[in-house]
Amino acid sequence: MAEREPFRLRRVWDVRRLQALARLAEWSRWQARAEEARREASRMEAERRRAAGALATVGASLPAVEMAARWREVEALGRRTEAAHGRARVLAQEAATRQREALNARQEEQAYQRLYWRHRERQRLEALRREQARVDEVAGRVAGGRGPHGGGWR
């Protein structure tokens, strides 16, 4: 059973490593989505400013109906911009959650790695102890004058 233990630990460690890598990839995707949402919000904000600036410069030369339509367009751009900022915040929060999950998975994977290496080291030391015991036993037989077949040396 002890011989199979490193294999089991290695399998669990491999699974945890793959899970940690999957979490990192998931975090990366969420980060990319949050960044894209931030860029979209910035683009919409610039568009709203440009529309508001155009509305202010044209001013009195426009008929009241067209001025009201443009103003509604600027307000709609403002609402869409706020929604885009909200989406970016939510995606950034979700990315932060995924980052924490990825870090936890990585720490768990490292713990299994350390456990595996400690177990392997214990096995190595035990094998060294067994070998040393065999050497000591043979040395004791030789020093005691007994041959390998239980009789004396001739």
Structural features, described:
The structure is a single chain. The chain is mostly helical and 154 residues long. The protein has helices at 5-58, 64-143. α1 (5-58) packs antiparallel against α2. The mean pLDDT is 86.
The H-and-E topology, N to C, reads as: HH
End-to-end Cα distance, whole Å, is: 44 Å
Q: What structural category do the secondary elements indicate?
A: mainly alpha
The Rg value, from CA coordinates, equals: 36 Å
Major beta-sheet overview = none
Low-confidence stretches: none
Strand content: under 5%
Form type: rod-shaped
- The number of strands is 0
- Calculate the mean pLDDT score and round it: 86
Residues in helix, %: over 70%
Count of DSSP helices?
A: 2
List the helices and strands and how they pair.
Blueprint: H1 5-58, H2 64-143
Helix pairs in contact: 1-2
List keywords for this structure.
154 residues, 2 helices, mainly alpha, 87% helix
Nutshell version of this structure?
The protein has two helices and no strands. The chain is mainly α and 154 residues long.
